[in-house]
Amino acid sequence: MHNRLAVFGTVFVLMGVSSAAWAQPKPEPGMPYVSPNSPSGVFGERGQLAIMGEAGALITHTHVSGADGSATTLLIRPAVDYFVIDHLSVGAFAGIEYSSSSGASTTTFGIGPRVGYDVPLSERFSLWPKAGFSFNSTNFKVDAQSVGGVTLPATSDSNTALAFNLYVPLMFHSHHYFAGIGPSVDADITGSPKTTTIAARMVIGGWLF
Fold first, then answer.
1. Counting Cβ atoms within 10 Å, is residue 207 exposed (0-12), middle (13-18) or buried (19+)?
2. What one-character DSSP code corresponds to residue 86?
């Protein structure tokens, strides 16, 4: 009698485990499997609104019309992104970026749209690349310099340009909050002089709904 109960109990447990396994959601094509109840699995669902900001003092490499150099950059860039379908986001950002190097500085105001796609990698991490365009207004300043005993006065110039923006942060998720870091590229398409900035940037924010 006890043996029969043990057999029936084993069969019942196996059937329950098998049913639970079949009931588990399957990963989307090309996506690693991540638990749908995990912080990374929940993020990026259709209808979510993500609010964030890129900010920080960073060391960047800037190319300006044939001249290369390193600069210290302070960036403040708030943004809003909405997931129109699972994983696919559309959004907009605006911000200010101040960059200073030896004897010169630039201040850029920018605003523009972007599109992104979040790829969950594990229960806590995802990759969320975003690309877009921005309209930038940049002011260039060059400090007064002494050349051959002659002091050259400080000069300034301004430039408006359409720029291509790419940002690929590795995201860490915790419930309704996230933080990330990754490479970025901001390259002027129009205007003169054209500026291309390659940097590592940080982002922090949260999502609603």
1. buried
2. T
Alpha-carbon distance of 26 to 207, in angstroms, equals 24
pLDDT tens, residue by residue, 113-140: 999 999 999 999 999 999 999 999 988 8
Hey, what are 135's tokens?
């309209």
| pTM more than 0.70 | yes
Strand partners, 153: none
User: Which own/partner pairs from 94-100 qualify as long-range (CB within 8 Å, at least 24 positions apart)?
Assistant: 95/54, 97/73, 98/73, 98/74, 99/60, 99/62, 99/71, 99/72, 99/73, 99/74, 99/197, 100/71, 100/72, 100/73
What's the first-to-final CA gap in the chain, in angstroms? 54
- Encode pLDDT of 22-77 as tens digits: 333 455 566 678 999 999 999 999 999 999 998 765 555 556 655 555 667 788 89
CA 198 – CA 91 distance, rounded (Å)? 22
Q: Dihedrals φ, ψ of 46, to 5°?
A: -55, 135
Q: Which CATH class name applies to 39-208?
A: mainly beta
CA 64 from centroid of its chain's CA atoms: 24
Does residue 80 contact residue 71 with C-beta atoms inside 8 Å? no
